[in-house]
Prior knowledge:
By secondary structure, the protein is of the alpha/beta class. Among the domains are: 1-52, Proto-chlorophyllide reductase 57 kD subunit B (Helicase, Ruva Protein, domain 3); 144-197, Alpha-Beta Plaits (2-Layer Sandwich), CATH 3.30.70. It has 9 helices and 9 strands. The strands form 3 sheets. The protein has a 5-stranded mixed sheet with strand order 3-4-5-8-9. The longest helix has 18 residues, at 225-242. The protein starts with a strand and ends in an 8-residue tail after the last helix.
Amino acid sequence: MIWEKEADTAIKKVPFFIRKKVRKRVETCVTDKGGNRVTLADVQTLKKKFLSKGGMENQIKGYDVSACFGGEGCPNSVTPSTAQLIKDIETLMEKSNILDFLKSRVKGDLKFHHEFRVSISDCPNACSRPQITDIGIIGAALPRITGEPCSQCEACVDVCPEQAVHLNDEGPEINTEICLACGKCMRACPGDTLDTGKAGYRVLLGGRLGRHPRLGIEVPGILSHGEVLNLVRRCLEFYKNNARNGKRFSHVLESISQID
């Protein structure tokens, strides 16, 4: 699909958290008309439709699960693939009937900002902005010191952005207080001194932008695929039991301890 310059400039003014969805919708509308070029008029037509009464509500499914492009060959990707995790989370969302819940709680038309948002990133670079969504999931792999002889090459030290790796006479030491579990030191090690310890996901809850922005609260530890799904399920239950008048998840969650 070809985007004319004016159309591309206009779409960049759409809030980033729905820009991908709106862009796809514009392209679908153009394709349905038999076109292959997006003009400014196409963008303005869809904008007018969305802003009309009830226009946006028809496009809302109650939740949004987004991800970075790590699974498409990003060299920083920590986890092999998040595709199955995305599918499993979307299945949970469908079964929770979150759309019907929102319709019963929100006064007036539903809008995109009412949707329950999950964002998944394959590494701590967090390109999909998991820190500011209802549930943010970040691929993680903690390094393990194997006991194999260290060559003292310092490759692990040089590659760590957090300076969490130091060498002593016996080999590397990992400062777990500042390590972000990105996996770079393990990939850089030319021998077998460092390999993968625990791999899985870091999870952040209750992030948001808006008038009172807040970064997500991190759940302790590295969670497995199954543990992440269980946590998402509990978050949805908590949200449905406590949200009133269309309040976002982040406005009813104050502490991780509330998700029992």
